[in-house]
Amino acid sequence: MNPLFLQYPRCNTSKKAGKWLREHGIDVTSRDITIDNPTREELAEWIARSGLPLRKFFNTSGLKYKELNMKDRIKTATDDELVGLLASDGKLVKRPLLVLPDRVLVGFSEEEWARQLLK
Question: Would the pLDDT of 26 be above 90?
Answer without folding.
Answer: yes
